[in-house]
Amino acid sequence: MKIILNQDVVNLGEEGDVVVVKDGYARNYLLPTGAAVLYNKTNAAIFASRAAQIEKRKVEKRAQSASMKEKLDATVLNLVVPAGESGKLFGSVTSTMVQEALAKQGLEIERKKIEVATHSIKMVGNYTVTVHLYENEFSHVKLVVESEEMVKERLAAEARAAAEAAAKAEAEAAAAAKAEAEAQQEEPAQESSEPASSEEAN
Prior knowledge:
Layout: E1 2-5, E2 18-20, H1 23-30, E3 36-38, H2 41-49, H3 51-73, E4 76-80, H4 95-104, E5 114-115, E6 125-134, E7 137-146, H5 148-192, H6 198-201
Parallel strand pairs: 4-7
Antiparallel strand pairs: 1-2, 1-3, 5-6, 6-7
């Protein structure tokens, strides 16, 4: 069936595109949801009259896409999932989990635009998630998958490092205070050892 897209549809096309899809896809989803209209002379003329507006929106979407790509490429997501001692995941990493993690960082992305290769994420470790932005623009988000045990160990290590750093700083401060006190004690001793002035002698 030949249709005109009324909005952007992932993996199909953009607003104003004329595409051919299976009849069932058009009747059961695209047409009822308003994502597309039938291609005919009337609808084609309507979209032709809206061409300038559609192009303006495309320019805005490209700018937003470029801005979002910059933010996503610099993003590192940490996901904590149940895993065994060997690091093998009990469940799987889903696009919903990634979407929620992005939202916590103030990045709102449609779930259907997030591509997670769940079959390849079976162990804790570092991965890359692909996000489809606009047209042929994609972003690659760094994903760190950890188990609860790994997080506990990492937090414990960070706490130990912080405690050691605090103890070291405290020791250095105490040593500096001791050195300053000793220096102040030496000054009066030096003053008392100096010869009396002529006025004091008279």
